[in-house]
Design a protein that fits this description.
Blueprint: E1 2-5, E2 18-20, H1 23-30, E3 36-38, H2 41-72, E4 76-81, H3 95-106, E5 125-133, E6 136-146
Parallel strand pairs: 4-6
Antiparallel strand pairs: 1-2, 1-3, 5-6
Length: 147
């Protein structure tokens, strides 16, 4: 049975994919859970139109994100957190903390998924953090200070 996925679903299918799956799996699981719909000719035409609109919006958002990333490249952002006398942090710094610092200081919203590796961020001081979005990578400096 051919179905159109309306949500990402693991390794089975991504949003807007048209896949051939077992009819029992489709009728008993995918369709009742709202993960997929039957691939009728009308639904296929409708999903193609929706996909084109979605792709256009995604391109516009990518262009805006690229301009936003250019404006924060090589900038320094400060995060205040608790640390002991030796400079080790009590709680780790997470991507959402960095995104909040960027939002507070520059007024730019970035998805936390775009923030790169944070393994070495366990002490106070300056750390170089990569931000990867839309095939573009920039580096920002994160300055961690004690509260």
């Amino acid at each position: 049975m051919k179905v159109i996925f309306i949500k990402d679903f693991g390794k089975i299918g991504r949003k807007f994919d048209i896949k051939d799956v077992n009819s029992g799996y489709a009728t008993n699981f995918l369709i009742p859970k709202g993960i997929a719909i039957p691939a009728t000719p009308e639904a296929t035409k409708r999903i193609e139109t929706t996909r084109a609109t979605h792709d256009a919006e995604k391109k516009i958002q990518g262009d805006l994100l690229s301009k936003s990333l250019d404006s924060i490249a090589d900038s320094t952002f400060t995060v205040k957190t608790k640390a002991n006398e030796k400079g080790h942090l009590f709680a780790g710094i997470h991507a959402r903390d960095i995104v909040e610092a960027i939002r507070t200081e520059k007024g730019i919203d970035i998805d936390p998924a775009f923030v790169g590796e944070l393994k070495g961020v366990k002490t106070m001081g300056e750390h170089i953090i990569p931000i990867v979005a839309g095939g573009k990578t920039i580096k920002i400096t994160l300055n961690i200070v004690s509260q």
